[in-house]
Write a structure and sequence with these properties.
Rossmann fold, 42% helix, globular, single chain, five-stranded parallel sheet, four-stranded parallel sheet, alpha/beta, 13 helices
Length: 315
């Protein structure tokens, strides 16, 4: 048997960049989740493991949880952080600098780049121009791999397993990059998936095909009521107004696909509700008091998982 130390070293080499969940094999995902569990104690006590390292956060789109959890993760590991929180404060936004030039500049200042950008494919482009590791913190409407990893960790932590889980992905499945990455990540496990979305916001056929090709049982349902019944995990997402090319199309679906206290009453007692946040009207505040509501626990898991990712890439 190959020692864990050797496996860990191999995976650190393979985690040069983290652009897509599809770049990871199941063994790598499991390795990240195992390392995240080890970070639970480190997060409380803090460490100096990365005290000589600098992380650059380039957020061309607004973010609260992803940006701050990455910063919290780096600081808890003893590292330093620099960067910007909106494109308007950078030369890319104010002076028209290209993404390639931004990356080639920032790599001179830091040891790793964490980037969120509104355009599909942006993270892959950044990695091509960078001589330091790049972590995709959300690229357009395509993917959000670290969110998927923290979602997988949350499910495993709260339910005790991933194999054998039934999960419903609900809400904006067309533009929601979190559900794209999560669906593909779940494809590595023995799971049953229900997809619940308004007709105009159904999951992209390519993602469904990817899941089915991996042997996952996937069914599409038309309502929240169908989604919450007989399932272990309900994963709700926001209808993303900023992704709609036509605001009138957003108005047709806004507020019409949500979880209420009545819906929670249809769920199993031991089921859980997750949400990548922020929420608008798709998850009623009255749901917060139910034991199934675990989305704020999910937020903290983002720190733990991103600590594991940063340490694996930078150690």
């Amino acid at each position: 048997m190959v020692p864990d130390s050797v496996l860990g070293a191999r995976y650190m080499v393979e985690l040069r960049n983290l652009i897509s969940i599809l770049d990871l094999e199941k063994k790598q995902i499991d390795h990240i989740l195992d390392n995240a569990a080890k970070m639970e104690e480190v997060a409380v006590k803090r460490s100096k493991d990365l005290e000589s390292k600098i992380m650059a956060t380039l957020f061309f789109e607004p973010s609260t949880r992803t940006r701050l959890s990455f910063e919290s993760a780096m600081l808890r590991l003893g590292g330093s952080v620099l960067g910007f929180a909106e494109a308007g404060t950078s030369s890319a936004g104010g002076k028209g600098e290209t993404l390639a030039d931004t990356i080639r500049t920032v790599e001179r200042y830091a040891d790793v780049i964490v980037m969120r950008h509104p355009l599909d494919g942006s993270a892959r482009v950044a990695a091509e121009f960078s001589n330091i590791p790049v972590i995709n913190a959300g690229s357009g409407s395509e993917e959000h791999p670290t969110q998927a990893l923290l979602d997988l960790y949350s499910i495993k932590k709260l339910k005790g397993r991933l194999d054998g889980i039934s999960i419903s992905l609900c809400g904006d499945l067309k533009y929601g990059r979190t559900v794209h990455s999560l669906g593909m990540g779940l494809s590595h496990y023995d799971v049953t998936i229900k997809l619940a979305a308004p007709p105009s916001l159904r999951m992209k056929p390519a993602v469904i095909e990817q899941m089915k090709k991996a042997g996952v049982s996937v069914t599409e349902v038309d309502s929240v009521e169908e989604a919450v019944k007989d399932t272990d995990v309900v994963y709700m997402t926001r209808i993303q107004k900023e992704r709609f090319p036509d605001p009138r199309e957003y108005d047709k679906v806004s507020g019409r696909f949500s979880i209420t206290a009545q819906d929670v009453s249809l769920m199993r007692d031991d089921a859980i509700i997750l949400h990548p946040l922020p929420r608008v009207d798709e998850l009623s505040a009255e749901v917060d008091s139910f034991p199934q509501a675990k989305y704020f626990d999910q937020v903290y898991n983002g720190v733990i998982v991103r600590m594991a990712i940063l340490k694996m890439i930078l150690s």
